[in-house]
UniProtKB/TrEMBL annotation:
InterPro entries: His_Pase_superF_clade-1, His_PPase_superfam. It comes from Marinobacter nanhaiticus D15-8W. CDD domains: HP_PGM_like. This is Histidine phosphatase. Pfam families: His_Phos_1. Substrate binds at residue 54. Gene3D superfamilies: Phosphoglycerate mutase-like.
Amino acid sequence: MYLIIMRHGEAGWHSLDQARELTESGRMGSARVASQIASSRWRPDVIWCSTLVRAEQTASIVSEVLNVPILERPFLTPDDDPGECLDALLAEQEALPETLMIVSHMPLVGALSTLFVDGHRRGIPFMTSQALVLDLPIIGPGCGDLKAQFLA
């Protein structure tokens, strides 16, 4: 399977972190990356996204461009353990599509990327609206190969 991991677009400030909304720049950056993905060979069949507003808004923009459904997943918030996402992927392995997209936050997106490619959770930095494509012939730590990157 292919896994696209995307960080939400640029978000404004709010006294409640979970209520932060995308800025206009964040909306445009998310749409640019979605358009790049639409023109690539890695179009997702479904999007899993965080339950926080900025990730939901990003996923909505991507969904509109790519015409794919969104499923909110409670284990994709910024400080969640990447192992929970790995467990969910393994549990749903038989029903997963050819290409799945995850829209989430730092530090989780960075930790997921290194978990699947390098087998550790130290993470790498992601810019807002950045997306990576991983080839995961087997779902597990250290089993992925980086295939592409999309930047706003």
